[in-house]
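Lecture 7 notes: from sequence to structure.
We start with the chain below.
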Amino acid sequence: MEINSDETIEKILDDCKTIAVVGLSSNQFRPSHGVASYMRRHGYKVIPVNPNETDVFGEKSYFALSEIEDKIDLVDIFRRSSEAGQAVDEAIAVGAKAVWLQEGVIDQGAAERAAAAGLLVVMDKCWLKEHLRLQR
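Predicted structure tokens for the same chain:
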């Protein structure tokens, strides 16, 4: 499926129920917190990945994707573009189905690596806004 296509976005929203959020903050004023809170309210399981947090929403925060024992469907990335590639490579390594680089997070090379590895890919779009737009 094509990167950023509505078909790709719909498949991720419908099929990816366990979401590791890289860069998830416990600060309620951070975009990652608001988006992840929305995900949780809509029935998605959110797993925090942030070495600077111990827990978010009462869920243990992990240092890296490789520490998570649950099967991860989607890796949602709230990191600087320059750091997104590492999270994408970790998502590929742990066998995630998809990666989502949030609005403003752009790494074309990482997106292409993920797509070549068979992952669904969305880049430079907000998960929450797309969920609302497609009425999921």
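Points to note: The chain is about 40% helix and 20% strand. Residues 6-133 form a domain with the Rossmann fold fold (CATH 3.40.50.720).
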